[in-house]
């Protein structure tokens, strides 16, 4: 099953990148942070803490109360990956 997934991902990746470039023509923010969409990002400098992964704007909005509460009660860093609008929140 892993090989099938890898094959499908390998075949779909160029199409996804073309779509990303096409969409970025109308919304230049799509060109920023595109590596995060593919799961590539710099690892956090500190170890430990809580990792919150919110992709869509709705997920970011839903996670905001949790993130604010964690940040106010602990010295954690929240990392958010996602759509350009969600990343701005």
Keywords:
mainly alpha; extended; 89 residues; single chain; 2 domains
Question: In words, what does this structure look like?
Answer:
There is one protein chain. The chain has 89 residues and is an all-alpha fold. The chain has 2 domains: 1-40; 49-89, no CATH class. The chain has helices at residues 2-26, 34-37, 57-73, 84-88.
Topology (elements, then pairings):
Layout: H1 2-26, H2 34-37, H3 57-73, H4 84-88
Number of helices: 4
Poorly predicted spans: none
Q: Which H/E pattern describes the elements?
A: HHHH
Query: Tell me about the biggest sheet?
Result: none
How far is the N terminus from the C terminus?
A: 37 Å
How much strand? under 5%
* Shape field: extended
- Mean pLDDT over the full residue set: 78
Q: Specify the helix fraction band.
A: 55-70%
Look at the helices and sheets and give the structural class: mainly alpha
Q: Write down the Rg.
A: 16 Å
Number of strands: 0
Whole-number tally of structural domains: 2
